Amino acid sequence: MNEIHLPNVLHIEDNSDISLIVAKILSKIANITHVDNLDRARSKLAEGEYDLAILDLVLPDGSGLDLVDELKNRTPPMPVIIHSAHEVSDNIHNVDAVLSKMHMQHDILRNLVLKLTDQRNVVVS
Fold it and tell me: Are strands 58-59 and 62-63 parallel, antiparallel or unpaired?
């Protein structure tokens, strides 16, 4: 039987309730590493390989947008999902998707992660 490699997702979120919800939503399709600020995110990125980042905009040590260019300048460029409770302006560039925490739909997040990590053919039960 073929072993399925689950993608490594870096979730940068300072709200522990949101991080638990996202971890539960993605538990069967990804390995989630959660950090709660930009400094820890940069440390994790230096330590290991990640296939996708889910990024909050408002963090204790700055804006999540400060990390987007770093993620996109990696080889290969890392897909980025902005996951924010705040209204996100249309002029945010260089991200793959923007999702609202206020209207979080589990299936949309799950399918987006599957798509951006190229797992379209994975069956999730």
Answer: antiparallel
Tokens for 107, please give them: 């299936």
Domain locations in the chain as residue ranges: 8-114
Per-residue pLDDT, 3: 60
Q: What pLDDT score was predicted for residue 102?
A: 80
Contact, 41 vs 74, CB < 8 A?
no
Beta bridge partners of 33: 10
What one-letter code names the amino acid at 109?
L
Give the pTM: 0.88
**CATH of region 8-114:** 3.40.50.2300
Residues with Cβ within 8 Å of 86's Cβ and at least 6 positions away in sequence, in order, are: 57, 58
User: CA 10, CA 110: separation in Å to the nearest integer?
Assistant: 14
